[in-house]
Amino acid sequence: EVQLVQSGTEVAKPGDSLKISCQGFDYKFSNYWVAWVRQTPGKGLEWMGIIYPRDSDNRYSPSFRGQVTFSADTSINTAYLQLTNVKASDSGIYYCARRYGAGAFDIWGQGTLVTVTS
Amino acid sequence: IQLTQSPLSLSASVGDRVTITCRASQDIGDSLNWYQQRPGRAPKFLIHAVSTLQGGVPPRFSGSGSGTDFTLTITSLQPEDSATYYCQEYDNLPPRVTFGPGTKVEIK
Known about the structure:
The complex is a heterodimer of chains A (118) and B (108). Chain A is mainly β and 118 residues long. Chain A has no helices and eleven strands.
């Protein structure tokens, strides 16, 4: 079954760094762009950017550039989202999603809940 | 580009016809997709490029529109359709993706 499986819940303190993983199964992982999307009660679904695992070409949303880093390891079919110097406002559910066609997202990870609290 | 959806919530009975509207702040052609999100779950891809149903999506779902005004219609609402529905637009030069605020559909 084609799927993306994400790492588990994260609880962090302000100023911490954390890294979320997203592993792809049953498709050619390196050939599809992987997007990162944050969901919060206040702002809804926000597109953070996208990475092409084959060559790690990254495109960041202006809203998140400089605050997050995407990376990928094609040997284990995994993409990563790194958050640094987190704040309470970074709390939310983070999703990875496979890009379909020019700009849709057909396969989603189950989501990773991030809570930033002192 | 901003996307607005209306209504933001609705309550309807099983068998009802439900229409959700998505409006873009400028012309986006046919670069419009729809997703369904049930509570506690990830979004599910429903419709691509305004009106193309993804595999496995029941035919009671349909999409239409172009330019700035789009609609998602559920012709005969079923209990499992209770969810929040999001529209989403995109461009690639430069890369940009925007989601609408969502429309919560409840069953009476």
